Amino acid sequence: MLLELSAGVLILSLVAYYIITRSRGKSQKRDQPPPQGDASDVIVTYSKTIPGYEVKRIYGMIESTSVLPVEGEISPDLAEEDVVHKLMVKAKSMGANAILDLKIEKETFKEHVRITARGLAVRV
Predict the structure, then answer these.
(1) What pLDDT, on the 0 to 100 scale, is given for residue 108?
(2) CATH number for the domain harbouring residue 13
(3) Domain of residue 91, residue span
(4) I want to staple 85 with a disulfide (CB 3.0 to 4.6 A). Which of 16, 80, 104, 107 is the partner?
């Protein structure tokens, strides 16, 4: 199970990195710099625990948000990957190496879609 979780996190990280680097010129606003840092070693899970790991320190809840136009050329899946990557970078900058209980919300408004990712930053 741990191997499957690690492989899933690695694949998610690689896909997020590929998508973000491929779309960097299209999706980034001029006033927002692209997320910096390597977050490939941050474990992300939807569950509240990671089998085989013990939580050593809790840094707290973290959140990342992205807003894109409804009629834009950026896909919501791409924006979701970007939001998760930003969350991973934020967690790593705090000293965390894992995000537990990941929640992703998509809210559609008349002119835009807001994607929010929340999780608990911890050190395991």
Answers:
(1) 85
(2) 3.30.110.70
(3) 2-28+38-123
(4) 16
Q: CA–CA separation, 84 vs 49, rounded Å?
A: 18
User: Could you give phi then psi for residue 50, rounded to 5 degrees?
Assistant: -120, 115
CA distance 71 to 69: 5
The alpha-helical segments, DSSP class H, found in the chain are: 2-27, 76-94
Structure tokens that stand for 36 in this block: 């910096």
Confidence tier at 90 by pLDDT (50, 70, 90): very high
Q: In this structure, what DSSP letter does residue 45 have? A: -
33 located within any domain: no
Query: How would residue 60 be classed by pLDDT, with cut points 50, 70 and 90?
Result: very high
Its sign, for the CA torsion 13, 14, 15, 21, is: positive
Instruction: Return the exposure string of 12-45: e unless at least 16 CB atoms fall within 10 Å of the residue's CB, then b.
Output: bbeebeebbeebeeebeeeeeeebeeebeebbbb
> Is 118 a member of any domain?
yes
